[in-house]
Amino acid sequence: PYFCYTGNEGDIECFAANTGFVLDIAPKFKALLVFIEILWGINAIWEDSYKSAETLGYLNSQQALADYAVLIRSLKQNLSSDSSPVVVFGGSYGGRSKLELL
């Protein structure tokens, strides 16, 4: 299975370091643990996107969910594991977004 932790409103490193439960159970399930960070809310590389109405429309929670789905689907296809289950974890913004994935 895949255990996917979707990022929150800060750098993923901080959240990954404090995710003991997921780190503890992943080996027990022989899961591939993936930490996914959506950078647009915190990264300066997207700064120009805020200046254009054309690109600003992509900086929203629906696009973040679509990006999560594309990445997970791509991982499963590239690793020849299309039938593997996916369990998604997170808290705060990342946790709320998981409800929308369901």
UniProtKB/TrEMBL annotation:
Belongs to the peptidase S28 family. One of its GO terms (molecular function) is dipeptidyl-peptidase activity. Gene3D superfamilies: alpha/beta hydrolase. InterPro entries: AB_hydrolase_fold (IPR029058), Peptidase_S28 (IPR008758). This is Uncharacterized protein. GO terms for biological process: proteolysis. Keywords: Glycoprotein, Hydrolase, Protease, Signal.
